[in-house]
């Protein structure tokens, strides 16, 4: 998306005088521009567009239970899941997971991002680095960490037990609760980064002005701070939502086989049952469905002026 | 001009000839023909990862290297047989792999798809020691080792080994059970075992088995234990679950008998690995040398001692203490799964588990 906008902005504007010199210059500009873009476009085509095209083609092939793929054209792998209530349940669960993780992640990251954006401390750089430092460890490692913390004999349950709050351990892993907790923490650095960069419009003078004109702290927040930081919030939510609906590792590990989302379903079909055409069709459905949701979301956020 | 053309033609002929020669010794040897030398070169082996790779390397590959110092073995490891098959399917046409050791149910599929070569005693003399029942009826790769599915238990919770699968349903173990759900072979095996216990022929229906497994589901802590089904019991997350006898025996030693493994009285299901020569293998001659070694009494007993897989050859001698811990290959209570049936039913059974059994 951003590439297209950038291209649109950098192309020579229509307001240029139609002189020969300018024309030649603009042609040269365009050529330089294309030459500069070429490596990135080539890389993108080879690593993303071609595999994607291959996947779309694969989804129309006939697939047998033995992992045999027969070249052909069938819509079976689309018709079957779309008419299957189990598939819709998995899709709905995936959507719900994205929504819940997105909202929770934004809620817990907002204060951190706000603090980092406003901080004038000389340690600001260090603090920002600390906030995003978890990105340096792989999501797998962090998920294992959560398994240890949330397990039946883990930190949370054993502390609660020793303090006498519970007798039986709370079920915090091998279900959606564990997956949600894990994902919120894992995606927090992304949300924080997205919000810091989206908080550009926020200026302390505006808040001070509202305060000096008699607005309560709560009113300053709801009428000034929040609207000004909304673009960052909405971007962060979208980012976390997208990452959540497509994530595989955490639902797989913390879900204990009991959490079925589209990504785990695709994994089972690909590596366990070797039904590549069906897995490809599910991937295309995931892409199209969430593509639509995201574009609607972006249109809506543009409408509310974010 | 004339000489130029002639020289050009000669050059072209030379190029064509060398290209032909290259293609003959390079990737994709013709079916049935030898490629490379039987005593030198390399062999690309695809097999299981983790502990299996570690122990097979130690017990079989290293002694093989000592015997054939000019053959290099490249071990490509995969987490499951399905992943191996998927890799081999991707290479069909120009295979890069020579030998595959994988589950019988998956290698049968490979045979059907024409991914593997037939083998006989003239190419692999040690096949003479593989009894008829462990040879493929169509002449494809024979059984290389056997194991069975068992109950893996925490020895502190169960001072005496549980002797029935029914222990999984015991309310005392609620929330402490781990089951690797299908498409894993463990979950598939439990479905077949439960069907048998419920007096059902699984090739006809698994209705009763599904109902019974549904009763089990609330007791199950994880349907995808991590890091695996053995560590789940060793670390105390669960006290009982499914596992393979061989690996469980090994981990039992590793964990100082923290876990044990038992094959219950109702019987069990074999897990059978075959050794297969890839069709058009780039180093088929050396590959046959390796397969022959893998089926030797020496390699078979070494691997049984290392990872407790039962040998598939009749001349492998095992010490009594090892023999007691590998599965008996003639136990009438342990059956082989109907592979042809399961290749079609695997998907259906997996869906049945997801829709009926694993519900939150």
Describe the structure.
The complex is a heterodimer of chains A (306) and B (360). Chain A has 306 residues and is an all-alpha fold. Chain A has a domain at 86-141 and 174-303: MetI-like fold (Orthogonal Bundle). Chain A has 13 helices and two strands, in the order ααββααααααααααα. A two-stranded antiparallel ribbon of chain A has the order 1-2. In chain A, a hairpin with a 5-residue loop joins β1 (62-63) and β2 (69-70). In chain A, α8 (176-198) crosses α10 and α9 (204-212) packs antiparallel against α10. The relative contact order of chain A is 0.12. Mean pLDDT of chain A is 88; it is low at 1-16. Chain B is an alpha/beta fold. Chain B folds into two domains: 30-146 and 271-323, D-Maltodextrin-Binding Protein, domain 2; 147-270 and 332-357, D-Maltodextrin-Binding Protein, domain 2 (3-Layer(aba) Sandwich), CATH 3.40.190.10. Chain B has helices spanning 2-25, 51-67, 81-91, 104-112, 185-197, 207-216, 229-234, 245-254, 284-294, 297-307, 320-323, 339-357, and strands at residues 41-48, 71-78, 99-103, 143-154, 177-178, 220-222, 240-244, 259-262, 268-277, 310-311, 334-335. In chain B, strands 1, 2, 3, 4, 5, 6, 7, 8, 9, 10 and 11 form an eleven-stranded mixed sheet that branches. The radius of gyration of chain B is 23 Å and the shape is globular. In chain B, 50% of the residues are buried. Mean pLDDT of chain B is 90; it is low at 1-6 and 8-32. The chains are: A mainly alpha (306), B alpha/beta (360). Chain A binds chain B through residues 65-69, 86, 144, 147, 151-153, 173-176, 252-253, 255-258, 260, 268, 270-275, and chain B through 79-80, 82-83, 85-86, 89, 109, 112-113, 175, 180-184, 221-226, 236-237, 343-344, 346-347, 350-351, 354-355, 358, 360.
């Amino acid at each position: 998306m951003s590439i297209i906008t950038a291209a649109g902005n950098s192309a020579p504007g229509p307001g240029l005088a139609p002189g020969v010199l300018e024309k030649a210059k603009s042609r040269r500009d365009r050529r330089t521009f294309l030459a500069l873009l070429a490596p990135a476009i080539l890389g993108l085509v080879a690593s993303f567009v071609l595999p994607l095209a291959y996947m779309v083609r694969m989804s129309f092939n006939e697939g047998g239970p033995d992992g045999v793929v027969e070249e052909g054209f069938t819509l079976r792998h689309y018709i079957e899941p779309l008419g299957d209530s189990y598939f819709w349940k998995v899709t709905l669960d995936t959507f719900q997971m994205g929504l819940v993780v997105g909202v929770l992640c934004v809620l817990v990251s907002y204060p951190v991002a706000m603090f980092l954006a406003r901080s004038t401390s000389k340690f600001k750089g260090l603090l920002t680095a600390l906030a995003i430092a978890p990105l340096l460890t792989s999501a797998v490692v962090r998920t294992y960490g959560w398994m240890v913390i949330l397990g039946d004999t883990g930190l949370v349950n054993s502390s609660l037990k020793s303090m006498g709050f519970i007798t039986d351990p709370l079920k915090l892993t091998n279900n959606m609760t564990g997956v949600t907790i894990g994902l919120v923490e894992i995606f927090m650095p992304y949300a924080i980064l997205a919000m810091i960069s989206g908080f550009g419009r926020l200026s302390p003078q505006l808040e001070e002005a509202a305060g000096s004109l008699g607005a309560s702290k709560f009113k300053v927040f709801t009428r000034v701070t929040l609207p000004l930081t909304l673009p960052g919030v909405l971007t962060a939510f979208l980012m976390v939502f997208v990452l959540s609906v497509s994530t595989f590792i955490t639902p797989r590990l913390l879900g204990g086989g009991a959490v079925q989302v589209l990504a785990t379903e695709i994994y089972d079909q690909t590596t366990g049952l070797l039904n590549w055409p069906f897995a490809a069709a599910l991937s295309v459905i995931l892409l199209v469905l969430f593509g639509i949701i995201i574009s609607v979301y972006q249109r809506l956020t543009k409408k509310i002026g974010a | 001009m004339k000489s130029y053309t002639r020289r050009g033609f000669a050059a072209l002929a030379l190029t064509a000839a060398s290209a032909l020669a290259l293609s003959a010794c390079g990737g994709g040897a013709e079916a049935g023909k030898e490629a490379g030398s039987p005593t030198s070169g390399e062999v690309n082996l695809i097999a299981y990862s983790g502990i299996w790779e570690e122990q097979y390397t130690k017990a079989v590959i290293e002694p093989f290297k000592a015997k054939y110092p000019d053959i290099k073995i490249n071990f490509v490891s995969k987490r499951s047989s399905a992943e191996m098959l998927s890799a081999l399917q991707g290479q069909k046409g120009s295979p890069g792999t020579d030998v595959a050791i994988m589950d019988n149910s998956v290698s049968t599929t490979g045979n059907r798809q024409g991914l593997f070569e037939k083998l006989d005693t003239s190419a692999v003399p040690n096949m003479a020691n593989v009894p008829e029942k462990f040879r493929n009826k169509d002449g494809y790769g024979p059984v290389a080792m056997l194991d069975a599915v068992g109950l893996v238990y925490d020895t502190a919770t169960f001072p005496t080994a549980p002797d029935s699968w029914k222990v999984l349903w015991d309310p005392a173990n609620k929330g402490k059970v781990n089951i690797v759900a299908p498409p894993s072979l463990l979950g598939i095996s439990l479905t077949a075992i439960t069907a048998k216990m419920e007096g059902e022929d699984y090739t006809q229906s698994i209705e009763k088995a599904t109902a019974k497994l549904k009763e089990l589901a609330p007791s199950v802590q994880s349907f995808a234990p991590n890091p695996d089904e053995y560590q789940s019991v060793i670390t105390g997350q669960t006290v009982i679950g499914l596992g393979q006898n061989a690996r469980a025996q090994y981990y039992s030693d590793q964990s100082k008998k923290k876990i044990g493994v038992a094959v219950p009285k109702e019987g069990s299901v074999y897990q059978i690995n075959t050794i297969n020569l890839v069709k058009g293998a780039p180093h088929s001659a050396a590959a046959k040398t390796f397969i022959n070694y893998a089926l030797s009494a020496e390699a078979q007993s070494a691997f049984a001692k290392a990872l407790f897989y039962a040998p598939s050859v009749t001349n492998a001698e095992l010490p009594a203490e090892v023999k007691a811990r590998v599965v008996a290959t003639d136990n009438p209570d342990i059956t082989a799964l109907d592979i042809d049936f399961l290749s079609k039913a695997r998907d259906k059974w997996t869906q049945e588990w997801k829709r009926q059994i694993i519900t939150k």
